[in-house]
Design brief:
With 168 residues, the protein is an all-alpha fold. Helix content is 74%, strand content 0%. Helix 1 packs antiparallel against helix 2 and helix 1 packs parallel to helix 4. The longest helix has 51 residues. It is rod-shaped. 11% of the residues are buried. One of its GO terms (biological process) is bacterial-type flagellum assembly. Keywords: Bacterial flagellum biogenesis, Cell projection, Cilium, Flagellum. This is Flagellar protein FlgN.
């Protein structure tokens, strides 16, 4: 006997997780936009949104695991790490097909998210390198201010003196 209530619950949980992943993809895109635009306020907001979404995803992922564990116990499936694919052979055709589609959608979205996150990491790294370079330039300018001679020119300037320069 297939516990259809738990199977329906699993399908519902996966649909909710897919909705959360879609939202997370939007937030990851917002992070990317903020990094490209150099807008720290937008970056902070998008990262906060991502954290909140991740917290929600953790809750739904745990619910999914719990239902999968219940179903694998019901079907007496020996598995230390119960997975959706372990359950599929024990379900009716309609539930199996729906769960396969939902699982594939989750995997595809996770791959898209991985790509966006790698690009975001590279953008953040490039931004950090630029900020560090600017910081070093500013620190150097403060610690080693240019010195000007009596003529108003820097004595270490590499340009030849003009005809108006007293040294000429």
């Amino acid at each position: 006997m297939i516990p259809t209530d738990r199977v329906r619950r699993l399908i519902s949980i996966l649909q909710t997780e897919i909705g959360q992943l879609k939202t997370f993809l939007i937030y990851a895109g917002n992070v990317q936009d903020a990094l490209v635009a150099g807008k720290s306020e937008g970056l902070i907001k998008a990262l906060d949104q991502q954290v909140g979404c991740l917290d929600e995803l953790k809750v739904w992922e745990q619910k999914r695991r719990d239902v999968v564990v219940e179903l694998t116990a019901h079907f007496k499936i020996p598995s230390a790490n119960s997975s959706l694919s372990d359950l599929l052979p024990h379900l009716d055709h309609q539930a199996r097909e729906e769960l396969q589609n939902l699982g594939e959608t989750c995997r595809t979205m996770a791959q898209q998210l991985g790509k966006i996150q790698r690009v975001n990491a590279l953008l953040a790294e490039k931004s950090l390198v630029c900020v560090e370079g600017l910081g070093r330039t500013l620190i150097d300018a403060v610690l080693n201010p240019p010195e000007y001679g009596p003529s108003g020119h820097r004595p270490d300037a590499k340009t030849p003196p003009s005809i108006l320069d007293r040294r000429a």
